[in-house]
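quick one, 121 residues, struct below
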Amino acid sequence: QVQLVESGGGLVQPGGSLRLSCAASGSILSINAMGWYRQAPGKQRELVAVFTSGGRTNYADSVKGRFTISRDNAKNTVYLQMNSLKPEDTSVYYCNTNAVALATPWSRDYWGQGTQVTVSS
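---
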């Protein structure tokens, strides 16, 4: 119904930058929200940054001022620019969307496969 393909993860030194991309495809009728989550070993999955309805953005306190979410609505793509990366940012980052697909009369969450981000010297 909806597929999310992520890219851009990798290894970066502390203080470095990385840019993640997530492209949504499939029989999408509408998107209510789209953004990024992350989950590190021993920690709960947490919201990193998200676009909600109306184009509002929400950020986790831990990434405010360092991460920036952006989007290309025509391509159903969101990006996450990550600057001033810290070792504690090391995690698997997941793209998420709440959307209505053609075969489903209600909205639901869809998840990408995840991309590993490792911040280490």
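The two ends are 40 Å apart (CA to CA).
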